[in-house]
Design brief:
2 helices; three-stranded antiparallel sheet; hypothetical protein yedk fold; seven-stranded mixed sheet; 6% helix; mainly beta
């Protein structure tokens, strides 16, 4: 993942130790995705950093439990997509620092809507600097679905995703 100061390996999923929810209770669950609509409103995300995750696609699953269909979603033109992400550092018992991240999500584009109700915020390459350094007000223009027609969803072939 790119953090502004270079590439860094991070754990996907944030442990928000010490953070509190709106009722003042500790946030205990690992956060894998952060909703763009509430990113700057929730105390669980106060003080987080920003990063970009380069990917060549991702997977979503549809269907009933124990018998799911895997879908690969990728750019129609090939190449990379750049997911907007937030970052934090969790200090584990014993003092080990764990660099961690969560993807920022938004409503899906038409290309993804039939497969999943959310998708990652995807950044144009020329907007990466704005995501990393921009103000909260400036970032709202980036946190929208990827334009329709630019992603391709295909059933993942040759992979058995059936639960035992």
């Amino acid at each position: 993942m790119y953090c502004g100061d270079g590439l860094r390996r991070m754990r996907w999923g944030m442990i928000p130790v010490g953070r509190k929810n709106a009722r003042g209770r500790p946030v205990l669950e690992t956060i894998i995705n952060a909703r763009s609509e509430t990113l700057f409103d929730k105390s669980a995300f106060a003080g987080v950093g920003r990063a970009v995750v380069p990917v060549n696609g991702w997977y979503e699953w549809t269907g009933k439990a124990r018998r799911k269909t895997a879908w690969r979603i990728a750019p129609k033109s090939g190449g990379l997509l750049f997911f907007a992400a937030i970052t934090d550092v969790w200090t584990a018992p014993g003092g080990k620092e764990v660099h961690q991240m969560a993807a920022v999500t938004c409503a899906p584009s038409a290309d993804v809507r039939d497969i999943h109700h959310r998708m990652a915020v995807i950044l144009e390459a020329d907007k990466i600097g704005l995501w990393l350094e921009g103000s909260e007000t400036e970032l709202s223009t980036l946190m929208v679905p990827w334009p329709d027609g630019r992603l391709m969803a295909s059933q993942a072939d040759g992979v058995d995703w059936t639960a035992p």
